[in-house]
């Protein structure tokens, strides 16, 4: 592994300051490069690497990888490894399938509450996603103030999302347990109520689905404001695909190798932190022509496997991918009519626990108003304003 190219500088220091620049420099050094973090790490971003790492759950484990660093993700299916992981996913998957989620659509649409006038896209999106997650997961039965308190640390820069918050987590778990005791019909809580560890699975789904979806939604609004020809309901899937390509919220994924192996021709010793980066994969000019351009039409022929991984791939693929797509479609739909403009902002990606716009993103939205009814008396219509 020591033969691999490496970006310049003190890696751990650079990782804590600006990991995206470090990754970019690494990618320029070669398709697989090494990093000296708190343990030796190796990063690849070509399809053969992604397939080898994500396809072998036995060698590349979640335990003691990056997700375990935050209490928000150190539980439930995220923290499980094979064989326990397989059983958990088999139990959860049917409830998160596209078709199983369709009955949620109207309930989600009812809580989107589009703005009217100037708004900041990140904070509006955060509120809308909190309301949609409350509707889908808990049938609206979770206290919105508690939900906001629980999720807000994820909106803050590192190291905030990494700090333990035992009291807050206990309050959230108690609230989820109360919902699970009498779960509202049709909610995901009702669907998973009988499963082992249901409360932990719901808490992890809530955290994993929050800032990821909110940041994606904010970026989508920004780009829709700048490219009005894409503001059409039937084009939203391609727009969403392209936003997720340009800004994959899960910008880095990690596993820990539990045995020595050869990955895409590269020997990887046991104990190595094995990283894949949807961001590097999606911005690789060898895989995506003009990778920095917003061009939803590139998805006309579908999504290429292993070089498009906003939701990862393989058996650990995002549990909430269909829920995320549903929330995004439902939340973006109102903005396809009316007047949407970007006023000011910085959409450049910045790395936190998820990728987020440097922001703020100030936009303005005026919904299309219903036409005033034609006055019955033509003279009344001609009367001067008082
Ligand atoms: C745009 C929004 C989202 C993005 C970009 C996203 C991205 C991802 C990625 C890249 C992974 C794999 C991480 C890894 O390699 O370890 C993942 C896993 C996961 N996501 Fe999402 N996610 C999103 C929304 C959601 C939502 C709404 C939920 C709620 C159900 C969710 C729940 C999960 C869970 C439970 C896992 C762990 C799966 C496993 O380890 O088997 N995500 N997500």
From TrEMBL:
What range does the record give for the signal peptide?
none
Q: Name one GO molecular function term.
A: iron ion binding
Answer whether the UniProt record assigns the keyword tRNA processing to this protein. no
Superkingdom, taxonomy of origin:
Bacteria
UniProt-listed Gene3D superfamilies: Cytochrome P450
Keywords noted in UniProt? Heme, Iron, Metal-binding, Monooxygenase, Oxidoreductase
The cofactors it requires, by name, are: heme
Q: Where does heme bind?
A: 318
Annotated stretches, region: Disordered: 362-386
Q: Bias regions of kind Low complexity — which residues? A: 376-386
Pfam families, sorted: p450
UniProt lists the family membership as follows:
Belongs to the cytochrome P450 family.
Please identify the protein, giving its name as recorded. Cytochrome P450
């Amino acid at each position: 592994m020591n033969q691999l190219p490496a970006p310049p500088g003190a890696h751990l220091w650079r990782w804590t300051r600006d990991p995206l620049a470090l990754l970019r420099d690494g990618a320029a050094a070669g398709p697989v490069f090494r990093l000296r973090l708190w343990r030796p790490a190796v990063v690849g971003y070509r399809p053969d690497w992604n397939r080898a790492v994500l396809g072998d759950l036995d060698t590349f484990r979640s335990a003691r990888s990056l997700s375990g660093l935050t209490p928000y993700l150190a539980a439930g299916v995220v923290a499980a490894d094979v064989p326990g992981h397989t059983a958990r996913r088999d139990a959860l998957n049917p409830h998160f399938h596209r078709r199983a989620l369709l009955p949620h659509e109207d309930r989600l649409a009812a809580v989107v509450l589009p703005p009217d006038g100037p708004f900041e896209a990140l904070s509006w999106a955060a509120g809308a996603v909190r309301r949609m997650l409350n509707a889908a997961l808990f049938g609206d039965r979770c206290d919105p103030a508690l939900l906001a308190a629980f999720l807000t640390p994820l909106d803050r820069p590192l190291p905030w999302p990494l700090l333990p918050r035992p009291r807050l987590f206990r309050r959230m778990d108690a609230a989820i347990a109360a919902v699970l005791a009498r779960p509202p019909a049709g909610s995901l809580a009702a669907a998973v109520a009988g499963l082992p560890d249901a409360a932990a699975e719901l808490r992890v789904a809530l955290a994993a689905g929050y800032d990821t979806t909110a940041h994606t939604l904010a970026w989508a609004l920004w780009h829709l404001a700048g490219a009005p020809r894409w503001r059409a309901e039937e084009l939203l899937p391609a727009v969403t695909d392209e936003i997720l390509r340009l800004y994959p919220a899960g910008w880095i994924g990690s596993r820990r190798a539990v045995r020595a192996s050869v990955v895409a021709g590269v020997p990887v010793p046991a104990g190595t932190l094995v990283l894949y980066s949807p961001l590097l994969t999606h911005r690789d000019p060898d895989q995506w022509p003009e990778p920095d351009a917003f061009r939803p039409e590139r998805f006309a022929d579908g999504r290429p496997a292993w070089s498009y991984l906003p939701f990862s791939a393989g058996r650990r693929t995002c549990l909430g991918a269909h829920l995320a797509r549903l929330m995004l479609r439902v939340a973006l739909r109102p903005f396809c009519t009316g007047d949407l403009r970007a006023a000011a902002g910085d959409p450049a990606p910045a790395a936190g626990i998820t990728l987020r716009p440097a922001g703020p993103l100030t936009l303005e939205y005026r919904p299309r108003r219903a036409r005033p009814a034609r006055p019955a008396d033509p003279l009344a219509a001609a009367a001067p304003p008082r």
